Amino acid sequence: MLYKFKHPILIQDLRNDPYLQGWKPLKARFQSRAPAFRILPEDWERLSVLASRKNPGYETFLKDVEHTIADQGTKKQGIKCEKDLKERLARNLGILKPFGYDLELYEKGMEYSLKGARGFIDLLCYDRKQHHFVIIELKNVQADRNTFGQVSSYVGWVQGNLHRKKVVILEKRPIGLVISRGCNSQFVAALRVTDRIKHLNLSDLGFE
Asked: If we measure between CA atoms, which residue out of 129, 134, 91 comes closest to residue 112?
């Protein structure tokens, strides 16, 4: 046993979370003919958030594990986890100015929940010069085809739900910005079909 939860996540906690609305395992009441449900990394991340809210010591435990892994050389030094990256970037969006972005967080833009849809945006920003939304997806690993699909769906949601809620109708459509530790060939190929998804490496921003 690695960690004992004093306050487990209840089924009602899952049903009350906006991110998990429409989540297949929950809709099926965790019953399936298949041996098990596939749980995506972002779903695990959300479950960890819920567990940490009810068990504050769990977040500390996760950080200790991630730091141990990093110390063993399986991750580069500097950024230990995506949450660390998210918090550091949210505090200093000016680091993106040399790349043409003049950003501010939109409302409570950190882990912005998509109402009526599954998912949450790592950082939802508004570009003060270009006058459009920028959806930032952070990965402390390589970006891949799934990353492209994920950020594309978030861009579509923002365009359908927030694009016309600004006082002045925005002329420019929202874009997605993936910041990751490199990317694979599938992600590179996907970028060729649109100019609305951009990519930066963590190393471009000075993160190791």
From this structure: 134
